[in-house]
Structures are given as structure tokens and as C-alpha cells.
Amino acid sequence: MGGDNAPEQIVKGAVLAANAPERDFGILLCGPKDIVEEELKKNSYSGDAITIIDAPDIVAMDEPPAQVLKTKPKSGLVTCVGLQKQGIAQASVSAGNSGAMMATCLMLLGRTANVARPAIACAVPTAKRQVILLDCGANVDEKASVLVDFALCGSVYAEAVMGYENPTVGLVNVGEEEKKGTEVLQEAYQLLKQAPLNFIGNVEGRDLIKGNADVAIAPGYAGNVILKLMEGFYELTKEVFGEVETEKSKEFNRLWDYRNHGGGLLLGLNGVGIITHGRADSVAIYHSLFTACRFAKANVPAKIAEKLAGIKA
Amino acid sequence: MGGDNAPEQIVKGAVLAANAPERDFGILLCGPKDIVEEELKKNSYSGDAITIIDAPDIVAMDEPPAQVLKTKPKSGLVTCVGLQKQGIAQASVSAGNSGAMMATCLMLLGRTANVARPAIACAVPTAKRQVILLDCGANVDEKASVLVDFALCGSVYAEAVMGYENPTVGLVNVGEEEKKGTEVLQEAYQLLKQAPLNFIGNVEGRDLIKGNADVAIAPGYAGNVILKLMEGFYELTKEVFGEVETEKSKEFNRLWDYRNHGGGLLLGLNGVGIITHGRADSVAIYHSLFTACRFAKANVPAKIAEKLAGIKA
């Protein structure tokens, strides 16, 4: 029931995924049983890939995130993450209150050992291919060491899920030199140099668009602004160049349409969570489900834990 | 002699401006006399709009900014700002070492009374029209009150030079609510509400692209990243859609080509300074000269001083 387009687009996206021949996962739709059943009927779905889990509580978008676990224990969000905790589900996807999703995942699944703060990572488009940008807004006023955790988490994801070998890591900054940027960024630069990462130094806004780093690290404030600018850019190009159909434009649209990006990946948790856009439509939900499956199969949380354990030891 | 394309493109841009029928200013080209003369000859310029001021010193791009005034007193940069201090020039434009330009302007022209930190403002493109974004990287780790100064300076510029009546001011942030973002941004929000500004609250990345605020305020770190993302984005659209020629695409190119933006406007100084892109070509220089003229004619520094005096009183 989360997001602007629930339940219609959420259920429609689940059905799209259920009907995809390449699907290799089952879908538990957590929401008010009668409403979800009704939607499934509208979509004429009668296969066995979708199971409805009754979750009658509704989480409002302005509901205080940390309280949802207690006040809305039978919401789709809490139910789904709860199934993950029990080992029944292997990943949770929500288009709803993103603070509530993060808080519930944190409380039920817990943080990965040695990760100070989980982050929201996004597979954002560039001129070349998707790169992992984090943090996209889960945190503010991070310490330098937290940015290094982001880099380690993002690097594991880029390798395990995106298949990028020895992914390059860049620090989003205002210039190439070590002594550029805020105090925190300057300190992070020094820590990143020493970390077991393929750190390529600072990347500026233009380098980011060029795809010069496979993993781009930014404080949550800047990462969130970057993510939303990219969405805004893409929407603007649709307005201006929407009628153009060339090989290049098709590739551009495939890369830049945020519905294809899979959503906000929660990294640093003992489990797999994805926060999709509040405006997610069925195509966005479809891609988030496939991304969640790859994320879970790649065993990212365990790999992050392993990497961090090695460092701390 | 500043920037990647000096002296060729700088002189060519000056000649372009000198030959423009709508030009209502004279141009003092400050650089090594023989080199500049040679370039003017290549451009077959023989009019009287350009005067060469001999300035044989060359400022390197990695020269420590604060020392240039002493170590390179006869550089084009120091000579030009010096002429402004004497009242002979009314504005200075440089494509060279931007830190040196800011430091020299600060030392020779001084800050506007009550402005804590000068900023670099840029007229950046949106879906609608140019908006003033600041700070684009002159500062890092700003206090909340400094962001309010940026808003006042940018607001004066938007009204006086861009002709935007009662310009709207937005704070670049991660969400609409007052309590979003870093501590500094939350504090700035409260201060901006009380300031004599048309403050419309927080603007997110997508709102910025939509042109929802005439003046967009961000810490220098984020502002710089935004500016360079916008450049990178425009370059990408040229690669993908470069061959498209429609009314919409022409308007888009006119708005988004950073060469048309005039350069980085130094706000908060007792004088008019513009830092152009290091890669500035003749078209960028041409536009920066016209922008400098409008900036000076609009008497922005005096208007900023007046506005701030009113507030502090």
C-alpha cells in the first residue's frame, strides 16, 4: 500500500514480474488481503508466483518512522521485513514511507557488524553505464569514517551485483586535489587512500556524468541532491527530445529512465531492502523486484560483513 | 593569459565583443603587450574598442592564490583588478587561476560591508530560464548565517541584473520539510524565513531543474557539484542528441550551453569580478564581457551593501 500509486501500480508491477519468463523468485504481496486480491483479479493473474500475505495496517507517508514497528505491526512494510527476519522472505521492497522502511529494517534485521550507518545506494546513470552512488539521503552530517564504510559497502555491491571487477571508487568533490572540499571530505580522502579499495581520488560533477568512477561516494545531502538532479535532467530531456528515436537516444533512455534503476538499495543491513520511488509505477516495481532478487542471491550483506571483518581485524 | 585557451580564445572573444553592434563598453586587454598585439593582428582588429595594457607576468594555474598579488604584480589578473580599484576599469574578467582571482579581488577591492564571505554565483539553466545558484565553490563548511548572506547577494543580482522581480529564493535540500538536511541547513532555513527575502523554502534537485526558485542557495561544496553536473549533463545531451534540430532543442541548447551563462559571478565584493571557465572559448569570453558590463551597470555591489545595511540596522 506504499507510495503514490498503490495498490494499482504495485500489484501491476508484481504481476509483470510474475509473468516474466526469466523470473526466478516468488513474490509475497503484503497488504490488506481483500484489496490485493481485487487488484490481482483486475490484472487477471491466476499463476502461483504470487502469494498474498494479509497486512491490513496502512503506514502514512508522514508517520514517524521509528514508531511504525510498534504502531503498525500489521502493515505491509513491517510484515514483509518480519518475514525476512524469519527467513521466509529473502528481500523486502517498499514504495512507501522510506524513513519507516529504513527504521524497520534497522530494528528487525540489524546493521551489518562494523558498519556504523546504513546508506541508501542507487545505481545511477552516466554516459557509460550505471554506477553506484551513495549515500543518497539516509544520513546527514556524516563523519569521514562513515564515508569510508559507504565506499566499502558500495564497492561490494558493484562487484557482487553489477559484476564490475575491482570497481573504481571516487569521492564526489569540488576538485581533483587531496586538499579540496570540506574538512570531512579531506579526512575521508586520506582514509580512503589507506582502505582496501580501488580508490581513484576525487571526482567532480562532470566526471560523475562521464562514469569515471564505478562507485561514487558523497555525504547523504549531496548524494540526494545529485540523484534528484539526475531525475530532473532525464525528465527535461524527455520534454525536449522525447520524440527523437535513434540508437543513441534509445540507449540513453534505457540508462537514464530511473524506473530501470531498481530503486534505493539499503546497504549495511543484515538483509536486503529496497526503497523505491514514491512515484514508482509498475515498470519501476518490476525492476525493483528483479534487483532485489539479484541483491539477495549475491549475498551482499554477508560479503560486506566479511570485507569489514577483514579490515577491522 | 589565463585559462586553457589563452591567449587565442581570450583575444578572439574580446574582438567578437568589440565588433558586436550592441556593445556599450570598452575593453582593456591586460597581458604581455607583444603577445596580445600579435593576437589582435591575427584577428584583424583595428578598431578603438580595445586597449592593450601591458602586463608581462604570467600566473600559473597552481600558483598559491593569496601570493599572486605580491609575486605577480604585473600579471594580467592583478593589473586588471588594480585598474578597477583605481576607477579606470569597472569590471574584471579572468579565465585564469580562479583562487588567485578571488584572492586578488578580495585584497584589492575588499568585501562588501556586512558580507562575511564572498561567493561565486552562476546563472545556471533550468527547464524555464536561468536561475542564480550560489555558492558554486568559493567556500566550504559555511555557517548558516553565511548561507543567508548568499541569499541576499543572489537575490539582489537576480533582481538588478536578470530583471527578476521579487525573486524567489530556495534552499537546496533533501526534502521540503523545515527539519530536513544537515544541521547548518536546518538553521539556515529558520534564518531565511526571517530575512527580507522571497523565501519559498527547500528545493530538491528536481525542483531546481524545473526552475522553481530564481535564486538557489547551497553550500559551496554542493553548489560546485551541481554546477559541474549540469555541464556534464549538457555535454552528454550534445553527444546523444547533437544532431537534433527542433525549436525545443535550439531553446534547450541556448539555455544549457554554459558558454552563454557569463561565468562565475563574484558576489559580496566592492567591485565586479567574473571568473570564467578555464576551458572558456571565444564565445564564453564574449558572453562574460557582456555579463560583466550588465553586472557593473546594475551597480550590484552598492545595492548589496544597501540591502545588508538595512538589515543590520
Structure description:
The structure is a homodimer of 313-residue chains. The first copy, chain A, has 313 residues and is of the alpha/beta class. Chain A has 2 domains: 1-113 and 268-298, Isopropylmalate Dehydrogenase, CATH 3.40.718; 116-261, 3-Layer(aba) Sandwich (Isopropylmalate Dehydrogenase), CATH 3.40.718.10. Chain A has helices at residues 8-19, 33-42, 68-71, 76-85, 98-109, 144-160, 183-194, 205-210, 220-241, 247-256, 282-297, 300-312, and strands at residues 27-31, 50-54, 92-94, 119-124, 131-134, 168-172, 198-203, 215-217, 264-267, 273-275. An 8-stranded mixed β-sheet of chain A has the order 3-10-9-4-5-8-6-7, sandwiched between helices. Chain A is globular and about 60 Å long. Chain A binds chain B through residues 127, 137, 140-141, 172-174, 181-183, 185, 204-210, 218, 220-222, 224-233, 235-237, 239-241, 244, 248-249, 252, and chain B through 127, 137, 140-141, 172-174, 181-183, 185, 204-210, 218, 220-222, 224-233, 235-237, 239-241, 244, 248-249, 252.
Please write out the topology:
The structure is a homodimer.
Chain A (H helix, E strand, L loop, with lengths): L7 H12 L7 E5 L1 H10 L7 E5 L13 H4 L4 H10 L6 E3 L3 H12 L9 E6 L6 E4 L9 H17 L7 E5 L10 H12 L3 E6 L1 H6 L4 E3 L2 H22 L5 H10 L7 E4 L5 E3 L6 H16 L2 H13 L1
Parallel strand pairs in A: 1-2, 3-10, 5-8, 6-7, 6-8
Antiparallel strand pairs in A: 4-5, 4-9, 9-10
Helix pairs in contact in A: 1-11, 4-5, 6-7, 6-12
